[in-house]
Amino acid sequence: MDIKIKKWLKQHHLIINNNHVMHTQMYIIYYIVMVFVFIKHVANCKKNINIITLHITSLYATFAEQILILNKVRYRKITTPYLNYQHYYLSNLKKMVHFNPTLEQFKNEVIDFIPLSNDDLDALEKHTQLKNLTLAQDKVLLLLPDINAYHVIRQKYIDNDDYDYHDDHHDDHHAIILTDYVYPLQAGDIINKSYFSETHQKIIHDEKYIVNADLQLEPLRKKLIDKDIVSLPFYNLKTPRDKIILHPFHLPDTQDPILAIMIVTQAIIDMIYYK
């Protein structure tokens, strides 16, 4: 036995004879092993807890799900399709306007993300009260520099192995709920429609409708007819609602509502796991 160990044991009255020393050494080793096993068990318990529940009622939350998967975050998913399908009638026509996009409105092609400007990030940070959105955007663009929105919606993700991180058990703890559920529109709400200007290579927002007292839509202006303007399937509110909801109705105007949703999701992940 090492002289230093023997001396320490003797000072602490743990040494009587060789057999006692051997038992003491075995006890110390056993104690260290048990502590290690306990720490590992606690770490595994924490790892296996699904802190996040993702509640999907439209296509918007599927983009948040992509960020959860790329971060390898365990989560529980609840889907209530069409429960929150935002649609309203025009006041003087039978035409119905749908505020939540459908799969058919997205092209099956890869598009490079254009980072949100500092002004967009500042507005998003102020509205959501989340911090470090510039860092969150950097992480999103590192994980996903381009996107095929059509594939994301159809859940054709980058790697099939990523599905291993999706968990649907109902007996775990869920401290955070991410959802794209929004309440119905109210009289006086002004709805913006998004268009893409090919000349300026940016998204513009046009005040398109106002909700009247009968909860129908009154057009504020005719359709933009500029030749370089392309209609996009995104609508948001002139005065966005509060609370962190993964829907453009709850986000300020930005150059890309999908990227904004992903940035907010990443910021929440960072707040939970990397604070």
Task: Describe the structure concisely.
It contains seven helices and eleven strands.
Give a verbal description of the structure:
With about 280 residues, this protein is α+β, with helices and mostly antiparallel strands. Helix content is about 35%, strand content about 20%. The strands form four sheets. The chain has a four-stranded antiparallel sheet with strand order 10-9-8-11, with no helix packed on it. It has a three-stranded parallel sheet with strand order 2-1-7, with helices on one face. A two-stranded antiparallel ribbon has the order 3-4. β9 and β10 form a beta hairpin. α3 (about 60-70) packs across α7 and α5 packs across α7. The radius of gyration is 27 Å and the shape is globular. Mean pLDDT is about 80; it is low at about 160-170.
Main traits of this protein?
275 residues; alpha+beta; four-stranded antiparallel beta sheet
Total strands: the figure is 11
Q: In angstroms, what separates the terminal alpha carbons? A: 46 Å
Give the topology string: H per helix, E per strand: HHEHEEEEHHEHEEEEEH
Number of helical runs? 7
Give the spatial strand order of the biggest sheet: 10-9-8-11
Q: Tell me the structural class.
A: alpha+beta
Q: What is the rounded Rg?
A: 27 Å
Helix content: 25-40%
- Assembly type of the chains comes to single chain
Strand content: 15-25%
Biggest sheet record? 4 strands, antiparallel
Low-confidence stretches: 162-171
Mean pLDDT reading = 79
Gross morphology is globular
